[in-house]
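Support request, please re-run this one:
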Amino acid sequence: MSTLKERQINAIKTMLNLNNPANKLSSAEPVWKILVYDRVGQDIISPLLSLKEIRELGVTLHVLLHSNRDSIPEVPAIYFCAPTVENLGRISQDFQNGLYDAYHLNFISPISREKLEDLASAAIQWNCVANIQKVYDQYLNFITLEDDLFTLRHQNNETLSYYAINKGDLVDTEMESIMEVIVDSLFSVCVTLGNVPIIRSQRGNAAEMVAKKLEKKLRDNVFDARNNLFHMDATQVGNFSFQRPLLIILDRNVDIATPLHHTWTYQALTHDVLDLTLNKVSVEDKEPSGGVRNKTKVCHLDSNDKFWTTHKGSPFPTVAEAIQEELEQYRSSEEEVKRLKTSMGIENESDLMLNMVSDNTAKLTSAVNSLPQLIEKKRLIDMHTTIATGILNFIKSRRLDTFFELEEKIMSKATLDNKSVYDFLIDPSSGTPEDKMRLFIIYYICSLNVPDSEFSKYEAALEAAGCDLSPVAYIKRWKSFSRMSLNTNQYEGGGTKTVSMFSKLVSQGSSFVMEGVKNLVVKRNNLPVTRIVDQLMEMKNMEKDDYLYLDPKQFKAVEMPRTRTSYQDAIVFIVGGGNYIEYQNLVDYAKQKTNTSNNKRIIYGASTLNSGEQFLKQLSLLGKEIS
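Re-run finished. Output below.
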């Protein structure tokens, strides 16, 4: 069955084929065209298709809508943009200037009747009605980063952040606008998957507002005989099996310790310390001694990179060892080519052509033919070495391994070692002020009771460490109001029962040396979101009052289903921002369930994806409103 990512890629490829059916995509000669997109459209396409793939689809030029563009006659122009007033104004300007002979207008989310009429008026005014070939609503208003991971927005994503939804001066119209954006995107996800989900959500918060608005939008479409987007041809199937998927909508307030947690899996670490954005990361590639300066290297991490797909969820020490193993394999392959050449006295390719007789020559020809794959393998090894070295530098300078291990013990209620949280806060060699603040907030949230005298002692230690105390003010109020804070047993730890593995990792030039990785036993625990997902998918211990049950296909509201069968498929969406730690925890849960019972498929989505520092900044903004 196709994944969310595959379905979105197919939709974009069909669009770039001038909205001809997918079976015509493989024509021998593509129609040459240009692609005009806004920043939102660029963000949607960039994690899905490389420049090479876009060119192979016949796109000779791709340009931003709001850039200076020259007239290009006789080539169709495909527009892919949001139907905003600014974008429609610029399209009208293109009509006026007669930039293209054929316009294929594709809107990321549906264009309203009023705006469509304005666009038609502009086309009539500038005498280019005949040039407009097609106008399409694409329902692609979301960004897919992995087969099972999506986020809603990259440009202006602060408008959908935890801070934006929880700030003190938020007015009803602003909240309504945020909810509409989220619902529009979730509706697009459902249309792309081809399924009407059953919706479960928390009560009494932003998640409930999103759930009810989405249910109405889905219901209106399902019962609209003319415009039903979920009627499929006999040749089409939805992304899921016969059973409908469960859409679980949760509010970020269900767990605000995990977004601050220091982590140790490869993808989450890359996001936390190197700012992984739209599957790209910039790393300082240090020059060898004597070099002029450091270079910034942009690394693309996608599903074509087998090392990344295999190890993105692995503990960092395991990744470091895997890089070393890959490097050794590459070197042995390279040495084999050199050895064969030397034994046969071959210096160049012309010598090879003259000596194509022996068995050794056949072996060498095979080895030479595999050189492109070897070169690509070496490029990936070098890239991951650069990324891992960058991560390792942060681990060492900020002692991130000790923060991770201490937070794991706090969240799993394990007995702390000799060095307490307070000792970490006053230790000048431990981490940045932000690292210390993240540690303290996790400790405060997971502690049943912190006496005022002890709390003041911690505050003084944080202040002495140079911390901004604004987040503490917000967390104190959040804990007093939050029902979830009463249940401090919701945390079991996010990653593993760990021994000090980070500290045994040392970098020697381009190689990594690990001690005892083979003996590393990872015991994974379920985070709060994963535990809720497990309860809802397995239909266990869930009272009807805890979570809304909404079925857009039912005429009348149903409080709970008649049958209590478990679900195979779920879409988990976090209003107010998600993170790679939760995503990986759900991936591990689905794998574990697949191995033990029936297959589980889970897609994780969030309004935004935040690193620990980004989320801490939002808490700081909220705290400043209080103080």
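The chain has a mean pLDDT of 84. The radius of gyration is 27 Å.
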